[in-house]
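User: For a benchmark we're assembling, each entry needs the component sequences followed by a predicted structure for the full assembly. Here are entry 17's components. Please fill in the structure.
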Amino acid sequence: MAVVELSNVGKRYPGAESLAVEDFNLTSEDGEFVVLVGPSGCGKTTTMRMIAGLEEHTEGAIKIGGRDVTGVAPKDRDIAMVFQSYALYPHMTVRDNMAFSLKLKKYAKSDIKKRVDDAAAVLGIEPLLDRKPRALSGGQRQRVALGRAIVRQPQVFLMDEPLSNLDAKLRVDMRAEIVKLHRKLGVTTFYVTHDQTEAMTMGQRIAVMKDGLVQQIDSPNTLYQHPANLFVAGFIGTPSMNFLTAEVSDNGQALSGPDFQLATDGPRRSVLADHGQTQVWAGIRPEHLHLSDSESADNRMQGQVEVVEPLGAMTMIQVLIGDTRVTAQIKPHQMVAMGDTVTLGCPSDKLYLFDKDSEMTLHGIDIGQSDAH
Amino acid sequence: MNKMSWPGKIGVNLLAWLVSILMFFPIFWLILSSFKTNALAAAREPAFIFSPTMASYVNALVNSNYWHYALNSVYTAVGSTLLCVVLGVPAAYSMAFRRSKRTDFTLLWMLSTKMLPAVGVLVPIYIVYKNLHLLDSALGLTLIYTAMNLPIVVWLLYTYFKDVPGEILEAAEIDGASLVDNIVRIVTPLALPGIISTGLLAIVLAWNEAFWAINITNVHGATLSVFVSGFKSARGQFWANMSAASTLSVLPILVAGWFTQRQLVRGLTFGAVK
Ligand SMILES: Nc1ncnc2c1ncn2[C@@H]1O[C@H](COP(=O)(O)OP(=O)(O)O)[C@@H](O)[C@H]1O
Ligand SMILES: [Mg+2]
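Assistant: Structure for entry 17:
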């Protein structure tokens, strides 16, 4: 187990104009489960490969267990990696796949057997040990890939989108299983995914990335409640947060735009007054919107229903407010039909505010969205 | 496929037969002639029905030192192929997995050497070989065959290696595999069908080679190609003898090809099936 420390790490691929990863700073706790999440192409894989030593970092420094690993070969970094494609050795049995690294390290035969058997027991793949990878299902291959990583008993696990080739149901099961495995082994783990649900459910800390830059590193709850900018706010949470361009009026008392008028609470009023700009981004999560019958309320948004998606436990509707499509989560018994004109309401303390140009949050970390719905 | 009408089907079948017969006829004629007497084989009227004689085979196998030439053919073909594979595997590995700016150029350049007519380098090589005492030696011929086939072998191996996913090699690297481990334990077993069919191709090319064999060997290092051409001598036309010798010289490779057919096909379609 080890602490992984990235300071100002950057990567410029040969011939590339811009950095694929820029100024990455993160120090893991010992035994922490860190998730890197972000849209495709944001530099997650590059970051992992730099930690693994498969790619050299061109800026900054990487330390594993206190040791600077610049120029240290992957095999000497005491890490194990699980690839998206699993990268099992097709010509070897499951047992040989798992034993490969130990054989190369010249472990005694009996030690190898014991370690492989132990790992196989943990993952429930004992019956598969004599099969070749081609005779395994996707989920089984995934387990073998994990097994190959854990027999090594490394200081750090690196997993790059290990579940993205599995079907939805299996993905949810394996998600839980990897978390359980992490709890059991307590090995520092870096986990890459582009799926925010996976990130939220698995990560102790999550680094949200975009275009090679870390946007925010925080616990799942903090990311959800205090997103640092518009991108994080929109990326974390499903369905995504709604964003409206709003005019600030009455010294921050109200936010308005075509077809909507939102009243602010005390803390937001002062934030807006301090900010002093006439336009801001107002963000509202779908789960904080509700159907409101009174037109007189301070917070009201009015528009035509364009889409109705009943999901059983709840219903998602999309309402055109001005020219913005706003998603709202309503109760399943509330009957709404396409084409209806509805009024939506939102509690003032659930409003998120972002600078119109920089898209950074206007809230200090303390302003807080109340946790209760 | 199955939508063809029955006259169409018959037409296609006839055509296929015709083409096959046209292609097979020279071989058929060669084998037929080998069972004739020299006089009959040289006769103006082609004879299809005659009483066969084994005289030419006896002549080739007993009186003409066939085994000496055959052994040289085996040495040079197998020897050069082994050398090609031993040199070609690391070369192809570096081109497939350690690419640099010059990789594509090097590949093209290697292939372009095949465009140079062999006659162009005959004199220089002859002189060098004379000084190195490699003329008329199986070793000398083996080295030439290695040089001759290496570009093709590297190219083919390169295409097979490119089908091995890079992540597998990276996984092995993290698992602690050295460069040699990677080549020997991962890439070679994974590309084995491809390596074997490449080797078979190199053997065939070396076995059938005549230009260099005739020009730089004579007796000691001479192969079956030299043996066959020896029948086209000043002593006159010995068509039947020559046919028997030719048959005997292509026979081993045909038999080997027959037995390795499956392997060849597997190797050539390797990657497509994965
Ligand atoms: N080997 C490479 N050479 C050049 N550019 C690369 C290479 N690998 C990735 N990139 C670029 O770096 C950026 C980040 O890629 P990557 O780390 O794979 O993103 P992610 O894993 O988040 O999808 C992308 O713009 C990609 O095009
Ligand atoms: Mg990636």
